[in-house]
Automatic annotation (TrEMBL):
Its cofactor is FAD. Residues 3-317 form the FAD dependent oxidoreductase domain. GO terms for molecular function: glycerol-3-phosphate dehydrogenase (quinone) activity. The keyword Flavoprotein applies. Belongs to the FAD-dependent glycerol-3-phosphate dehydrogenase family. This is Glycerol-3-phosphate dehydrogenase. Keywords: FAD, Flavoprotein, Oxidoreductase. The keyword Protease does not apply.
Length: 354
């Protein structure tokens, strides 16, 4: 089959790889450069998404945990296992028994994982590992496993696999319209395919709207920002934002500390950048847990991306992380989708082709 793919983020690239490997003639159209948008602005985690258990997203978490292990095994040079700590303090929103139960379930959903299970660590062990961790009220913490990746380089690695399998990847190709008969319009040209896959991430609905096709789903486009701090990170953490139920990450990243993220609704066409309010919010959250607080001058850089979430709740923090596929004639639309689950999503798209 001749397949046109709109979008060169990780979901489009995985579709190109899987479909070219299956023997299809694949052309992928990306208006910028490959993996230059959401797929390189992630928290760099290959993870099941521990917090999605609170939203009962068991199917998604199980799939993501399986995919996490698969990425770690498939591309060890661009990924690595990561041991995160979730400290429990007096007055934490989540008590020890709840976190313990959640991690027991997380490990159970991971099945026969290549990574070690969760483990309780004492205050002494935690402070030995990270002497700058705030000790006041600390009761101990759970260490648990996930994976870390270089999202941009790993996406480009996928692009290379797609090319080796025969896919044509066209950068700087802005698709102005698609239709349900397999056509893709770029500038004054029209390209014909047996199937077109719309994997435009946060812009998938915009493309449908500008093509006059009623979108079957709404997307909630929610910005997430990160800070890269000029400090080495001795330990990866999943932490509660003080006085909130929200969680945020503190992660080692290229010899520095990555802190993220936020959840701010915005339109897909608005500039995607970390605001001053988000910067202050993340810095305050980080400083709450350290005995050596940092200020704005210690920020090396910031970056932001928008999550293409299926619209499911008035509060974006409660929005589902599930993805959905929709078929209209020769057109297949992809809505949502995590980085970690991109290859599983591509296999589902392959099933939809027939
Ligand atoms: C702050 C943040 C943190 C995250 N952290 C994680 C994490 O740690 N782990 C994880 O698994 N997931 C994470 N995610 C989710 C994950 O990054 C995204 O779900 C994933 O990258 C989406 O990939 P995509 O290919 O669908 O979208 P994108 O990467 O945005 O790709 C879509 C592409 O389509 C192109 N495009 C759109 N319209 C057109 C058009 N008309 N013509 C041509 N090209 C077009 C765009 O230019 C873009 O390159 C995070 C997301 C955010 C925002």
């Amino acid at each position: 089959m001749r397949i046109g793919i709109v979008g060169g983020g990780i979901n489009g690239l995985c579709c190109a790889w899987v479909l070219a490997q299956a023997g299809h003639e694949v052309d992928l159209y990306e208006r910028n450069t490959l993996a230059s948008q959401t797929s390189r602005a992630s928290s760099k985690l290959l993870h099941g998404g521990l917090r999605y258990l609170e939203q009962y997203e068991f199917r998604l978490v199980r799939e993501a945990l399986k995919e996490r292990d698969a990425w770690l095994q498939r591309v060890p040079e661009l990924t690595s296992p990561l041991r995160l700590v979730l400290p429990i303090y007096q007055g934490s929103q989540r008590q020890r028994w709840l976190v313990g139960a959640g991690l027991f379930l997380y490990d159970h959903l991971a099945g026969k994982s290549i990574l070690p299970p969760a483990q309780w660590l004492t205050v002494e062990t935690l402070l030995q590992r990270d002497p700058q961790l705030k000790a006041k009220g600390l009761l101990g913490g759970y260490a648990f496993s996930d994976g870390q990746m270089d999202d941009h380089r790993l996406a480009l690695w996928v692009a290379e696999q797609a090319r080796l399998a025969g896919a044509n990847l066209h950068e700087h190709s802005d698709v102005s319209a698609i239709d349900t008969q397999g056509h893709v319009h770029i500038a004054d040209s029209r390209y014909s395919h047996d199937r077109v896959i719309n994997v435009g991430g946060p812009w998938a609905v915009t493309l449908l709207e500008q093509s006059g096709i009623p979108p079957p789903y709404r997307l909630d486009t929610v910005r997430g920002s990160h800070l890269v701090l000029e400090r080495e990170c001795p330990q990866a953490y999943l932490l509660e934002v003080p006085d909130e139920r929200r969680i945020f990450f503190v992660l080692p990243w290229q010899g520095k500390t990555l802190v993220g993220t936020t959840e701010v609704r915005q339109q897909a066409h608005e500039p995607i950048e970390c605001s001053v309010a988000e910067r202050d919010y993340l810095l305050a959250a980080y400083n709450h847990y350290t005995t050596a607080p940092l200020s704005a001058v210690n920020i090396n850089s910031t970056f932001a991306g928008i999550r293409p979430l299926l619209y499911s709740a008035a509060d974006p923090r409660k929005a589902t992380r599930e993805y959905a596929l929709d078929r209209q004639g020769q057109l297949i639309n992809v809505f949502g989708g995590k980085w970690t689950t991109s290859l599983a999503l591509a296999h589902k798209v392959q099933q939809q082709l027939l």
